[in-house]
């Protein structure tokens, strides 16, 4: 495929040179646009003072308000609680099988156990902190061969004795390793890991780790030498760098030219004394002419020039072992907007206010004295301290005059409080005291609900972003790697992963309050009462929550009648209905008889006058005959 003279690379160019050229240009873009800003965010979060962070040249105080620190820790704690507070933070479904299928139940349990063994919660927590401080949380998915040891016994001497020892099992586990932003490189025009030409993790690692991988055959067996110092790659750039026994390792994941990868693969198989020129390279004729120009690969370079590993992407899903998410999305940008950036301006104003007050206190609290220099003894060094004797030529009352610069204005307290609220408003984080006038009792119940609703809404937005961009992609990639490298323990099927994270501690407490208020308006006989009570217990952070819910469900099931009891109840109900029907029929008959009698009496009453007339006629007739 022809890309023009500018795109076709010469055959004597090495793969490591192509990769490092890309990485160097990406690092230049990062340092020009983000490095200085991220370093200041890190200092604000750690509470580290630097001269370039001062707002006034006359500042002497170095105090840094903990407002941003509190906002970061509160926001991260809320997301962590929402993710890991319930114990199970993801679920598995299968479109072709029952959700309670034994394979799904086994895989879910096995993944939770393996993630707990490798300390996933700690790694995810560090990625969340990086995201809150720098705006983007990045993690690298690594595979590691481990030896799992378990105590065991084995019969010896025909079963008469038991030998005590351990069983050792070789396994491949998947780990998540947090990556600092200064150690991560990405194509500047990309907005996600998948859209980029490639990504790279550029950092210092201990020399022994590289040597161990060389002994295992993972890396090329070649002398890597000593890495040069580079403070821009250090996790804490305010500390003195340790320059011994470390190697600068650049791991590139992405697209590379196919023919360069072939050269790199053959070069990676060479020994230390061999040269790439001694290898006969394959020509471009053949099947490769029909392939794409780029191929997905993994390239590892040591100290910027030594190729340690070059291979085509070995993962069965051809995915890149990097996951990242922004705390808050910036349109058309990979790097997001974190808590420190949101509260940056308010934090700087608050620090300036506090430092100005402390600097003014130095002029109002510490004693100062004016002196007549003509009355001081020659060579004297006057100082103001307890027990000090000041010598003067003449009356000291006229030569010495104590003074100060007045008092610090009390309005600075109110200004600091307002700036503190501005930080909370910008970041959406509240402290233990709450937002004055909205959370801590100075407002009505409706106002408190609206304030908490706004806070929960912002946390929920970040939580969903974290789940969809970081947590679920990591679980999927980890499961695929277990299926590929540990098929004995992980069945290979197409599963769907989803999160079970719901609400943080603030949101749960708010929801419990609403449910309790609703429960008070409902009688205990209501069928919805037990459901609401179970929801309240489920949202509470109780150590025996599962036990309480299980007992409630058992009590509810025990209160429901058995099939025999239901049949007996139906028989009793039918007998009662039959008895009531018979009584109804008897009453209906009596009513009909009464109606007939009434009709008879009415007819007789109507016929009585006629009978009297007939009797009179008969009497008259009889008299006439007589």
Number of helices: 15
Overall 3D form: flat
Total beta strands: 12
* Spatial extent as radius of gyration: 42 Å
The profile of the biggest β sheet is: 5 strands, antiparallel
Terminus-to-terminus distance = 151 Å
SSE succession: HHEHHEEEEHEHEEEHHEHEHHEHHHH
| Uncertain ranges | 1-12, 281-290, 435-441, 444-448
Strand-residue proportion: 15-25%
- Biggest sheet: strand arrangement: 4-5-6-7-8
Average pLDDT number: 79
Structure characterization notes:
The structure is a single chain. This protein is an alpha+beta fold and 626 residues long. The protein is 47% helix and 16% strand. The protein contains 15 helices and 12 strands. A 5-stranded antiparallel β-sheet has the order 4-5-6-7-8. Helix 12 runs antiparallel to helix 13. The longest helix is centred in the C-terminal third of the chain and has 63 residues, at 563-625. The N and C termini lie far apart (151 Å). Residues 1-12, 281-290, 435-441 and 444-448 have low confidence and may be disordered.
Chart the SSEs and their pairings:
Blueprint: H1 15-46, H2 67-84, E1 90-93, H3 102-117, H4 120-134, E2 136-156, E3 161-179, E4 184-186, E5 198-206, H5 207-215, E6 246-257, H6 258-268, E7 294-302, E8 306-312, E9 322-326, H7 339-342, H8 344-364, E10 368-371, H9 396-399, E11 400-403, H10 411-427, H11 445-485, E12 496-499, H12 505-520, H13 529-539, H14 545-559, H15 563-625
Antiparallel strand pairs: 1-12, 2-3, 2-9, 4-5, 5-6, 6-7, 7-8, 10-11
